[in-house]
Amino acid sequence: MNILIENILALLPGEAKVCSVAISDGVIVAVGDAPAGFKADKIIPGGGKMLIPGLINAHTHSYMTVFRNCADDLKFNDWLFGRILPLEEKLTEEDCYWGSLLGIMEMLSTGTTSFNDMYIHINAQARAAEESGVRAVLSRGLTGGKDDREGGARRLRDAEAEIRAWSGRENITFMLAPHAPYTCDEDYQREVAEAARRLNVPIHTHISESEAEMQTIREKYGCTPPELMDKTGLLTNRTVAAHCVYLTDSDIQLFAERGVSVATNPVSNLKLANGVAPIPKMLKAGVNVAMGTDGTASNNTLNMIRELGVLTVLHKGITGDPEAVTAREGFKIATENGARALCLENTGAIAPGMKADLAILSLDAPNVNPLGDPYSALAYSFSGMETETVLVGGRILMENREFKTIDRDRVLYEVKRIVERIGLK
After folding, report:
1. How many angstroms separate the CA atoms of 326 and 330, rounded?
2. Which of 273, 271, 315 is nearest to 293 (CA)?
3. Total number of domains constituting the chain
4. CA distance 207 to 226
5. Residue 234 domain-assigned?
6. Which one-letter DSSP state was computed for residue 62?
7. N or C, which end of the chain is more exposed by having fewer CB within 10 Å?
8. What is the sign of the dihedral through the CA atoms of 343, 20, 112 and 395?
9. Which residues, at least 6 apart from 225, have a Cβ–Cβ distance to it below 8 Å?
10. Is the entire prediction scored with pTM above 0.70?
């Protein structure tokens, strides 16, 4: 299908300008004038609108939408071990499927076209991604060690079986996800690292999220969490390390040397009182920094534009430097850097040859007028709800805020049933 987005304000690499964007077979073929002989099957008028590359959520747990607004104002260990893990035990694969669809709806409705998901039940997220058409990087959360050898082996087998079953989909890729250094012992981390090499898939993990984690790993292994995971082979140039709040300078240098990508989650880390990741230090050291929302159990939304606003303001206040993370740096973190972290080729920018993963935002809202600098507006003025139309691989998944591949009312109905069944309401 050929699509022409006409005369729209587009946020291109390095500049914003009014232009037209031509799409053919899911790929951007021109920015500016359409190629000779190009005939559009669909024309989208761009007047009064802004076009951005689809935002890339580099770390989340989409099934956790069913836990939204139910585990708030708790200390991290109370939140995780006292509230969330017991609730997860009540969820079925079907529950996670509907929760993921709700998460995908929220992400699409706020301009996100790709996400990196860690979850507890296989197949649910893959089904939701395939049916909705969103671009998904999926990983079954893995825990194990000498105290749970059978469970750890089973989870790894499940992950491998899912990868084989769903391989070949254009919009779905996989990682292996050792959950964290405190839920995967040293031997199990090595086992997962070896499986990742054998399967030729990247790694997705939580590292240095809390002070308690740092203390636990130092007491048990005599090193930092990144040092442990480097020793076990988990730190590579295809590793996504989520959170990374408590890093030493040597940890940051280690990430830079190994080519590790960091997925910062500012709202979740703030809300759980875990602190603030040293993002300016990482950027200065050359670490590829991407951004995620984490799950709605700790963030309450999957809105990457909200996350962008917090990221770009937070570090100014922490460092006293108004240029600590600029609006343009934040935009790159949420798009190009995310694509690099998730190993998504030809995504994250509006340019010929790139996949047509795009979001169209209205410029009519009072909160974005006058527009001024579009990159600043996206970071500091937009709420995310200005998103009108979203394409993934040139396929329109939402148009004029109407979902084209998801039954919105059915999803809301099913999620309500789940919440009632597990006793949240």
Report:
1. 6
2. 271
3. 2
4. 7
5. yes
6. G
7. C
8. negative
9. 180, 181, 207, 208, 213, 214, 217
10. yes
The tens-digit pLDDT sequence of the chain (425 residues) is 999 999 999 999 989 999 999 999 999 999 998 888 899 999 999 999 999 999 999 999 999 999 999 888 988 889 888 888 888 889 999 999 999 999 999 999 999 999 999 999 999 999 999 999 999 999 999 999 999 999 999 999 999 999 999 999 999 999 999 999 999 999 999 999 999 999 999 999 999 999 999 999 999 999 999 999 999 999 999 999 999 999 999 999 999 999 999 999 999 999 999 999 999 999 999 999 999 999 999 999 999 999 999 999 999 999 999 999 999 999 999 999 999 999 999 999 999 999 999 999 999 999 999 999 999 999 999 999 999 999 999 999 999 999 999 999 999 999 999 999 988 86
Containing domain of residue 243, as a range?
A: 55-341
Assign residue 210 the CATH number of its domain.
3.20.20.140
Residue 180 lies in a domain: yes
Same domain, 18 and 110: no
Cα–chain center distance at 416:
25
Token code pair at residue 213 = 């984690």
